[in-house]
Write a structure and sequence with these properties.
Number of strands of chain A: 0
Structural class of chain A: mainly alpha
Strand content of chain C: under 5%
CATH class of one domain in chain A: Mainly Alpha
Chains: A mainly alpha, B alpha+beta, C mainly alpha
Number of helices of chain C: 11
Largest sheet of chain A: none
Shape of chain C: globular
CATH class of chain C: Mainly Alpha
Helix content of chain C: over 70%
CATH superfamily of one domain in chain A: MetI-like
Shape of chain A: globular
Mean pLDDT of chain C: 86
Number of strands of chain C: 0
Low-confidence stretches of chain C: none
Order of helices and strands of chain A: HHHHHHHHHHHHHH
Mean pLDDT of chain A: 86
CATH topology of chain C: MetI-like fold
Structural class of chain C: mainly alpha
Helix content of chain A: over 70%
Oligomer: heterotrimer
Largest sheet of chain C: none
CATH architecture of chain C: Orthogonal Bundle
Number of helices of chain A: 14
Number of domains of chain C: 1
CATH superfamily of chain C: MetI-like
């Protein structure tokens, strides 16, 4: 029985694997070897590596992603840690997750209002006599909004790893004479590293490619790999170059996954688990 | 008088190069409580699964009421199993679990209700029909598993270490209940366990398994009193096993001395092993007993003291005594001729039975 | 100890304020009588009225829900079959490769998925629109269904399947009466996740939708690029309530399951206690 039914299960799923997983990846690599006129060429890669602008854009994008990830982690780790010790932690956790169910674009849109010339922040500053600042369309606004959107996806895996931590180990460390700071440094941090890695993975990769935020909040000042791909595919229609940048993004993705280890907590799956 | 229901003939089972069953020959009769007893990996569960139909034997025949059932799928065999982890369906409540097999057999609704009620009553779970499985304790889940199997009125019920997940007290209670249930239902139980006390307490007949072979089969008393070999003697109960040799019929030598015995039918001077059960040894003052030993340590076991002592040759002696001994004290141990059980090396079960019959008939 | 505890609470409160402030800001201005997200000028429902009168917007909401419903339904069927296929695959090399392939779409950035699907549809000359969006949503929802169903399948013990067979079930009966009911919670979670995936998606849809077909995310993006429109605020108010209901409903089911487990545990403990007292 096993063999034949197994094959039957595989028919629709295998169809999907071939046509929607393997084929698109192969196609994007294939496309990267064609120029705008449809001729086979290596010029896309040549352009990418020789013209300073693409390299600079990539470095910039990685740098922005790094900064976003850094600030997200900075806010999220203590949150996840403190959350573990609250009384109604399931309820608190629910409140952390709830914003992730709000459409991403609505959240970005909210900041257009908050950061605008006469928006929330500037009115607030106005109370102290500080003149209105240009906040929207700056690096700061881009990083702030991106971090805002990513924070829950960083908190969840870290929270899970804190939850998994055996309380006995913390007690053992205290029993062996470690202060609470020493216990935190030597026991808690190393043992929650897997959660941090999962969180970094869940934040860094999307941060490289969030093009709608660069458009809505960053103006056109900030260009990430994602923005460049969107630009090439949908505006200049240079799919070859867009695919080349896509390949670069895929390579970056694998590097990050390699650095942050096997254990991948997928961002949206994470919110289900709690 | 009793008819054979299940029979295994020359059954072998191999996984690749690994042999898990070696030439198993077993007869299971109607209405008795059988136990397959052995350490883990001895092949006892494999036998059960071969009878239930969850695995194919490599060679040999599995017979049910005289018919070969090797190729009959598990769902068409007239035996049912109580699984070690109960294997209850967590998405169904108690009633639906017990009714499962009846519904598969398209039994009428009213009949299902009556039979499920009866089965639940049998395992003392009346009124638990609508409970969810997750709301039951381990002991209650165990009963549901039994009810689910017996409701189908199988001629043989296979029980795969069903009590191993229960705590000691509950386990004892369930042993009584199982024995009672088997007698009330009058069907055959084939019970798998690694717990020798459980096997001795419950069974009409025990198959002692080791290394994929049946080492010895018989009533609990036979197996306890007359173990066939070192493994059985060691595995069932506590024992002192000492190397020695036969002088002649009813005369055995061990520990440098000759003793009277009740065993015969062996070659003169044949090397043998002698079994002395710790509860058969009595402590006497020096000079009044048969072996002189020095007490090393003792543990209080509640109803007796377990004493470990060493003789001059360095052999360890385990003694169960109602009175305490003093550590370091030198004492004598005494025993009767009937307490000595002599085992030949590598004797087959048939030879063993034949030899016993040859001289026990004389008496 | 006492003071440290309070500091941590203060920190949490600040984080929560930060998380919710933008959403509340958005919703507050949906009731503002002005036309911009500044200077609250008096309470009104007029943006909600405008929203419900906006037939184009309502059409888009219906389209979005339709895509979400259809795609999650199809993805659930294919994903469940896929999980069963993976579960019955015994060779670990095959199994792990299939799982890795399965996860590619989970970790890939949306832009890559969108761009590669766009190339794919163009290569096959599939017109962009409802069909291409639906197919894309099905495609990126399948792996999450697999990941939701597979653990349930693996949780199922071999002895439970043996028991079903022992009690007389045929292969078909085992699937319909034991396996399927057992993995139903996983299938529901998978469907639910696929549904929210589809509702949430912007980037993939943005790439593969043509001019004729819009989903809510794409529409919001288009309007937001043109500036503030308080009708969007009203929309976010409605969507917030919707999300709230979904989350509360979902967690109610989850905690209900958990309380059962807790009940079982309490029972075990009380039984152990009863044993101690009888002795």
């Amino acid at each position: 029985m096993k063999k034949s039914t197994n094959a039957a299960y595989y028919i629709p799923y295998g169809f999907w694997l071939i046509f929607f997983v393997i084929a698109p990846v192969v196609l994007i690599i294939y496309q990267s070897f064609f120029d705008i006129n449809g001729h086979f060429t290596l010029s896309n890669y040549q352009t990418y590596f020789s013209s300073g602008t693409y390299i600079l854009m990539t470095v910039n994008s990685v740098w922005y992603a790094f900064v976003i990830t850094f600030f997200t982690l900075l806010v999220s780790y203590p949150t996840a840690y403190f959350l573990h010790y609250t009384k109604h932690k399931q309820l608190w956790l629910l409140l952390i997750i709830l914003p992730t169910w709000i459409n991403l674009l609505l959240k970005a849109y909210a900041f257009i209002g908050i950061f605008s010339q006469d928006g929330g922040i500037n009115s607030f500053l106005g109370l102290f006599g500080i003149p209105a600042q240009q906040i929207l369309f700056t690096d700061f606004s881009f990083i702030f909004v991106a971090a805002y959107i990513e924070i829950p996806f960083m908190i969840l895996p870290i929270f899970n790893s804190v939850e998994e931590l055996n309380e006995g180990l913390v007690n053992a460390s205290r029993d062996l004479g470690a202060s609470s700071w020493q216990t935190f440094r030597q026991v808690i941090v190393p043992m929650t590293m897997s959660g941090v890695k999962a969180g970094v993975q869940a934040v860094f990769i999307p941060s490289l490619s969030l093009f709608m935020i660069t458009r809505l909040i960053g103006g056109n000042r900030v260009i990430t790999l994602g923005t460049a791909i969107e630009e090439h595919f949908l505006t200049t229609m240079n799919w070859g170059m867009g695919s080349t940048i896509g390949v670069v993004l895929i390579v970056a993705m694998f590097i990050i996954m390699f650095l942050t280890g096997e254990r991948n907590h997928h961002r949206k799956e994470a919110r289900h688990e709690n | 008088m009793s008819e054979v229901i299940v029979e295994l003939k020359h059954v072998n089972k191999m996984y690749g190069q690994t042999v898990v069953l070696k030439d198993i020959n077993i007869e299971i009769e109607q209405g008795k409580f059988y136990t397959l007893l052995g350490p883990s990996g001895s092949g006892k569960t494999t036998i059960l699964r071969a009878i239930a139909g969850f695995l194919d034997v490599t060679e040999g025949d599995v017979l049910f009421e005289g018919k070969r059932i090797n190729d009959v799928p598990a769902n068409e065999r007239k035996v049912n199993t109580v699984f070690q982890d109960y294997a209850l369906f967590p998405h169904m409540n108690v009633f639906d679990n017990v009714a499962y097999g009846l519904r598969i057999r398209k039994v009428k609704k009213d009949d299902i209700k009556n039979r499920v009620e009866a089965a639940l009553k049998m395992v003392r779970l009346t009124g638990y029909d609508s409970r969810e499985i997750s709301e039951l304790s381990g002991g209650q889940q165990q009963r549901v598993a039994i009810a689910r199997a017996i409701v189908l009125e199988p001629q043989v019920l296979l029980l795969d270490e069903p009590l191993s997940a229960l705590d000691a007290k509950l386990r004892k209670d369930m042993q009584y209940e199982l024995r009672e249930l088997q007698q009330r239902l009058g069907i055959t139980f084939l019970f798998v366990t690694h717990d020798q006390e459980e096997a001795l307490a419950l069974s009409d007949e025990i198959f002692v398994m080791n290394d994929g072979k049946v080492q010895q089969s018989g009533t609990p008393v036979d197996i306890y009193d007359e173990p066939i070999n070192h493994f059985v003697a060691d595995f069932i109960g506590e024992s002192n096993i000492i190397a020695g040799h036969m002088i002649g019929d009813y005369r055995v030598e061990f520990n440098g001395k000759e003793f009277d015995s009740v065993d015969a039918g062996m070659k003169p001077n044949e090397p043998v092993e002698v079994v002395l059960r710790p509860e058969d040894l009595d402590i006497t003052p020096v000079g009044e007993g048969k072996v002189t030993v020095e007490v090393d340590t003792q543990l209080f076991r509640g109803d007796y003291y377990e004493i470990v002592a060493y003789d001059r040759l360095g052999n360890e002696w385990l003694v169960h005594s109602t009175n305490p001994a003093k550590d370091g004290e030198t004492v004598d141990l005494t025993f009767d001729a009937e307490d000595i059980h002599v085992m030949r090396l590598n004797e087959s079960e048939e030879d063993f039975d034949a030899r016993l019959e040859s001289y026990e008939g004389d008496e | 100890m006492k003071t440290k505890f309070k500091w941590s609470h203060l920190y949490l409160v600040i984080v929560f304020i930060l998380l919710y402030l933008p959403i509340m800001y958005l919703i507050t201005y949906s009731f503002s009588d002005g036309s911009r997200m500044t200077n609250f000028t008096g309470f009104t429902f007029k943006h909600y009225a405008a929203l419900f009168a906006d037939t184009r917007m309502i059409q888009i909401v219906i389209d979005t829900l339709l895509v979400a419903l259809l795609s999650s339904l199809v993805a659930t069927i294919i994903g469940t079959l896929g999980a069963m296929a993976i579960n019955t695959t015994s060779r670990s090399v095959v199994r792990n490769s299939v799982l890795s392939l399965n996860n590619i779409l989970m970790v890939s950035p949306d832009v890559i998925i969108g761009a590669s699907f766009l190339i794919f549809y163009t290569a096959l000359k599939i017109p962009l629109g409802f069909g291409s969006v639906l197919m894309s949503h099905i495609a990126f929802s399948i792996p999450i269904v697999v990941l939701m169903v597979l653990p349930k399948l693996q949780e199922m013990s071999q002895s439970m399947l043996d028991a079903a067979r022992d009690l007389g079930s045929t292969n078909g009966q085992i699937i319909s009466r034991v396996i399927f009911p057992f993995i139903t919670p996983g299938i529901f979670s998978g469907f639910f996740m696929a549904f929210t995936y589809s509702l949430d998606d912007f980037a993939v849809t943005f790439f593969v939708t043509g001019n004729g077909f819009q989903t809510l995310s794409v529409e919001i993006y288009a309007r937001a690029r043109q500036g503030i429109d308080l009708e969007i605020n009203a929309l976010s108010g409605v969507m917030f309530i919707f999300a709230l209901l979904l989350v509360v409903g979902y967690y109610f089911i989850q905690t209900n399951n958990q309380s059962r487990k807790a009940k079982h545990q309490a029972l075990e403990e009380s039984e152990a206690l009863a044993h101690e007292t009888t002795h």
